[in-house]
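re the bet — no i am not wrong, look at it urself. input seq straight from the record:
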Amino acid sequence: MFIDQGIEARMKFGMRAAAVGIATAAMLGVGALPAAAAGPTSCPSNGNIDSWSKCSSLGNGVLFISTTKTGNYVMVNYYRASGSALTAKLGWERSGVNHWWANRNMSTVPLHYDEQAGISASCAVIIGKLLTTGGSSYSTPPVDPC
């Protein structure tokens, strides 16, 4: 299995390598999956982790997005370090269109909340998103898969 060049940078930011089965990779149709099973617990001020991973520091955690160099896979992760009750959903935006996963109770802290999906390959930039049921929206810097 190919692990992309960003593994060292991802591990540097508190991530652990993921073992992804060949069957999963074949099912998603991806050549290289991000090496992360969980997102970072801190974020550099510029939001750049590596070529295919970006993050934003929020008041109570870190919002993270990772993709592949062909843009056919996306993982959005919210590391929640503190805070009271929260219901929110993760999502991503590409070409001005938002894609959302279902609302989740994100009240347990500290904890990584993540979603991932195989998507159609594209060189269009992808932005990670978090939307609370109260209407607050947060996003990552755009990641350019190509």
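see?? The chain has a mean pLDDT of 81. told u. also Helices lie at 7-12, 22-28. so pay up
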